Fold:
Amino acid sequence: MSKIQVTELVLRDGHQCHIATRMRTKDMLPICAKLDAIGFWSLEAWGGATFDACVRYLKEDPWERLKTLRKALPNSRIQMLLRGQNLLGYRHYSDDVVRAFVQKSADNGVDVFRIFDALNDTRNLQVSIEAVKKAGKHAEGTISYTTSPVHDVPHFVGIAKELEAMGSDTIAIKDMAGLLTPQATIDLVKALRANVSLPIHIHNHSTSGLASMNLLRALENGAVMIDTCSAAFSEGASHPTTESMIAALQGTEFDTGLDIAAVQEVSAYFREVRKKYWQFESDFTGVDTRVLLNQVPGGMISNLSNQLKEQGALDRMDEVLAEIPLVRKDLGYIPLVTPTSQIVGTQAVLNVMTGQRYKSITNEVKNYFLGQYGKAPSAVNAEVKKLAIGDARPITCRPADLLTAEMAKLTSESERFATSEEDVLTYAMFPDIGKTYLQERNAGSLVPEELLDKAAVNAAASRFAPSEFKVTLHGETFHINLTGSGHAGEEKRPFYVSIDGIAEEVIVETLSEIEVSGGSNGGKKKAISSTGASGRPRPSHTGHVTTSMPGTIVAVKVKAGDKVNAGDGVLVIEAMKMENEIQAATSGIVVAVHVIKGDTVTPDESLLEIQPE
Structure:
């Protein structure tokens, strides 16, 4: 057996980086037998964003995916990515939930748990590591690598020592954004080998173009495990190409012993599969050295671009990428990896979309300043912290120490739609979308998001109106860019447009059908209406409460007749997987509420109305 071990990432991180985690289980299964026979040390196939994507978009049971892959890969270690006390959600869970989740993951097929904390707060890893060891599985303690004035080699060595003391079996350097350089890799791996006795595993995204060189330098200086991805989903925001690394190491002391032809067959299969997911491809997942400044991780960039596209704001990606490092600095140079990458990224989007930094602050940013995710790596911006939480005092203990046991409560809350402990844990990760998913599954009404036929879309585009044009109205010219639309044939069909860079929604509604008489172009025409399909009024004064970006209402905190003060939270909206509390801009009496929980809303409509004092 080679002394160099390889983890293959095509079943998880590869498609997370390039097609926003959209690959369906049915497209993985046909090639599993050949993957299983190659002899990788492990196959990363679960965790990360896959759980969320299965429930939110693909309408697949993530637990069934795991069980199915376990049967299809009988000779391989299945590896998952676990966010410590966050598990696979976006908050900290009580210790009993963490233990239950780890045990069920092990029971259903996970062999290797790569466990990390976004803040490198090792207090948030202890229970997960203990639970993995109790289940008899492999615990890989993980360093979330980043660069900043406070993140140096001694800092990372200290983390590694703590992970070893906690019982980790291996140590992973998780370079989620591709920030390592060859020299930094040499310095860090040498220092870790001198201070800990565990095998070193390198996970290095290729965004900056340096990852293959870094893997070689890591092996030369004592690392024995590397992550790669087969060619169909490698490079750029993803990882070094498996076939290329096999070839580079052949005939050296680091020869992997893997069959390059067998891996090429896997890549040929996935190259065809990838074509089905063309609508999730992004212009922002290639090599981009700007990552050395903005530090956006590979697993986030394709999702961020897709989410901005859904918001009708993809043209503002460069502004968001410039804002992200500024927000990161304000938050004390936190590493950008789930969930902190989403926390920082969503706040950066809000800062850009509203045109005013921290005019709107997400609940997750507020909770971060309150210490509910753990200890900040360094001092935070005091002014931003004041805006977010006022005079509230942050906690200093391990956040989960303040949480009481949750499993019994979660089981009780979900008893009407959960049929197993796995279902309860799905509900725990994502209460709203998890509940909806489970109810629809039980009713047999699950409908996954549509995979568009590229040829049909291109053909339709050639027959109809252009997607970018200028409109002159009352002497003023507007630049219009059509960024998306609802399904054709809907009575009220939304079209998402960018008007001079501002995201808007226009509803095309059938009011009447008119026969056009005479001529060779006879047919029917439909009148259009610019009124919102929801029937909500357009905002016209400060008492009209609006949202900065499209999203879903998750909480309505007031009712008609309530008195509110300017700055009071009146609604909570979920946008880009983060929750944002919407505040009243004026004091007065709530005279109308136009939304309920679950409503989809856009920036150009009033969500509730306050009669100013």
Summary: The first helix runs from residue 10 to 18.
